[in-house]
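name: query_chain
kind: protein
chains: 1
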Amino acid sequence: MRAADEEDDSVVHDGRPAPPRPPRRIPAGAPPLTQLQPPVRRGPPPERRPWLYGRFLAGVMVFLLVVAGGATAGWFIRQDRTSIDADKVLTDAGSSVVRVLSTACAGNGEGTGVYVGDNLVLTAEIAVLEPLAVAVVTRDGVVRRANLLGTGPDGIAVLQVVGRMTVPPLKLAADAPDPEAGRAILGYTAAGTLTSQTVGSVHRPRALSEVMNAAKLGGPVLAKSGEVVGMVTGDSLPAAKIIPVSTLRPFAVRGAQGLTSHSGGTCTESRGPQSTLTPALQVSATPLAVQAQRTLTNYLTLQNRHDFVGVRKFYSARLNGALTAAKDRQNHLTTYFFGATITEVTQSEGAVNVRINYLTLFSSNADGAAGQNCARRDQRFRLIPAGKSLVVDSTAQVVAAVPCDNT
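structure:
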């Protein structure tokens, strides 16, 4: 049995004896295999010192955020304070800005003015230079006669309105505006439309040549508050400038000191604005009405320009024979037409009957003036065909002329 076991232990499958096994080696100093390793106890990590650079960087970032936020808020606040909405200024203050018209011996006969209360209007002297008659027209079309009280420095003129003004006065600013604040000028066009346009700030002004026409001379310059901070004056359009409110303020009261008195013009022939006068149509714009409007535009414009020879080509042969150029001139030496409106156009017996009402300024010493110098007229023009156009054959008064003060 033993021999069999030994043979079994020493024999492999191929019948050869197995090599002897080497003894197991245990590293020196190794603990007994049955000894358990005690758990390793680790203490708390060492306390980390403060990261000073990180705290500094975080502080800088917070500081920059605060500064940027403050700067942005400040920019918005200043932008709101210095910007200006021209349309809002027009809405808020437009009713107190008037159109100034005159038939005068000199100047351009038109401008803009600002009503400052107590029936006083400030405007540019060039609009009322040596006048024979002056009128102010409110934005809603009310016409009032006015007298020139006098002129001040820098081309200022002060008008006294005849009759009661129903529009609110504009307030003059107590102090000069913020030099960075936006400003807007209100002024009329030659056609009588009130406009509002920005003119920059005192430090960053906009060129007046970009916004001006002759009819805007005398226009007030307003701040965002709606107060007057200046006025545009000048003896010509190229010479236009903005004068400060400090120059205006002494003349915005009755009995102002330093005002140079004027008695008005003394010429025998005066003129108003020379721009084209196109009557407004209050009838349907049919081809016939438009043709009649064109004829009366030429008639009124040439009369205002005192072109009494040129206007004759718009007269019929009969009227040319009955009315000489000299007589026509004598009838209209000081007349200025404005505010024309066509209210009726009809046809009868080959003629076109056109009813038109308009206002006129003229010298109170003119023939038939009866001491007046401003009137509203209602007339009927009889036009007849002449080739492809219409010409004036006769005129007739529909109702008696009414003084401007009663309109």
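note: The first strand starts at residue 97 and ends at 104.
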